């Protein structure tokens, strides 16, 4: 066999790209009532045979074998004039004189643990009325909540029946409540009550760290095996490939009906291992190398070579497939800094062209876990190259996160709310989503604001490490939330934040026991006031153009910004063409000090929200001359339209 460098030299030649780039959209299997067609892209193969099996779980020999035919652009083809729906298959492939078995990198579903692909007629996997499924209308602001399928519904206290706990189908149940009282909302009913508009589902494709035969293990799932296959452990029957498709579709359909848009967490930067169908069919083509070695920008031992034409096409086709077949409304890219700018912009452009600008959200982590560089020198989609990305592509803003609560990587390091000095200027920049003259940020749409996500500690656990006093810590918690929910940009939160989620200090809980990782729904009853705090603030934000404006000029709404030690304040122009809000001006003040701050006012204002009550805007009280901002708190003031005449 060739060395890694020899493979790379072959693949990166101009002749290889010119001769073997395939622009068709039919790789993999296509099954209808009348025909079955299987296509595999493998220009380096010398022979390919198809192996057919009656099921996707038993060991043993295929019941039938067929020879594939090589056509143009390195595509191998087999077809038959009938439906093979429900039949499983893999390949016997000869490369460089060596013969081995291989999976289908373009598989749409598989049997147990993803080893054999299944031929599927998608018209036979659709829930009732699936073709009429539509996402809910976009609200003025998009509020994203990150959930993990198994974490979300595994707690018996949450009210789900045992067969669907930790499964896709738990998302198809709109009304659950605490087992203890049968009345306190949990699950999706709870999230809808809070005001969540978008659910970001942590990996739902087929990943390698959980044995689907038992499904007892827990993992976040950032270890892809089959990119276009739903994860079998989240289905009620992982042995039959059509079940996982149908149940995921049913979940998405139900979420749309309940008023949620659905975002898929995708991991196109690396794979679980090199033992994948990608490598089995095209040795070292899909993986980035340097000087004859695999690069490791993902921190997982391999990086996908998104700069190569057929890798970029593979990823692009995959995103479009999920958007079309599963009606997904957006994509969150893990370690986007390993992928190329050109690829990310192409994905956004294709989605906008097909579905309309703004319909499909795209955002990701603008960093890598280690050093990686595209082999042809293409810029990567990291923070340094933000100005090269489409202004619609969002990035997680770690600068705002760390300014509010302290470094995610250093547990003991504090931020503004828990006592760190010299964070005031950073918060003023955060408030306008880092936009402005000389900034690389094109618009607030590019900034995802958050204070906790699945990585690192929860907000409560982080504050616990810096603030021993629980009463003070609770005020810091509300202040942290109040800050990022009054910044321009797109708000994002970790599931369970609204009931003070804890992982008991664990930060990297990617494979911790489910008992630690699952949402503890009993806390909902204990944290009703915190939930109302979130709900009131989110509802108010939906009514404030100054905060949800995503235009490139939104930063100009901020004026009269100021700060003293531990106190930050600014005013905002809140008007818009439709006069959609009763308040034309806003004033926002953050006070992290343990003493009140006296705020001098010019004119008549109304108190819209404070740390203690975020529903004041429904029946606001007037304030003139001056008002006190309580210790470790924030305040939002509004000036009504008639007050300006």
- End-to-end separation: 81 Å
Helix content: 10-25%
Kindly state the mean pLDDT as a whole number?
96
The overall strand count is 29
Major sheet summary line = 8 strands, parallel, barrel
Integer-rounded radius of gyration = 26 Å
What global shape is seen?
globular
Q: Strand order within the widest sheet?
A: 10-13-16-19-20-21-22-23
Number of helices: 16
SS class = alpha/beta
Question: Approximately how much beta-strand content do the residues carry?
Answer: 15-25%
Poorly predicted residue ranges: none
Topology:
Blueprint lengths: L3 H8 L2 H7 L7 E4 L4 E6 L3 E9 L10 E4 L1 E2 L4 E6 L7 E8 L2 E5 L14 E2 L25 E4 L1 H5 L22 E2 L7 E2 H8 L3 E4 L3 E3 L16 E7 L10 H17 L3 E6 L10 H5 L7 E2 L2 E2 L14 H17 L4 E4 L7 H15 L5 E4 L28 E4 L1 H8 L18 H8 L15 E3 L9 H8 L3 H15 L5 E5 L19 H4 L4 H5 L1 H14 L3 H4 L9 E7 L2 E7 L9 E9 L5 E14 L10 E9 L3 E8 L5
Helix pairs in contact: 7-8, 11-12
Structure, described:
The chain has 645 residues and is of the alpha/beta class. 23% of the residues lie in helices and 24% in strands. The strands form 7 sheets. It has an 8-stranded parallel barrel. A 6-stranded antiparallel sheet has the order 24-25-26-29-27-28. Helix 7 (309-325) runs parallel beside helix 8 (341-355) and helix 11 crosses helix 12 (470-484). The radius of gyration is 26 Å and the shape is globular. The N and C termini lie far apart (81 Å).
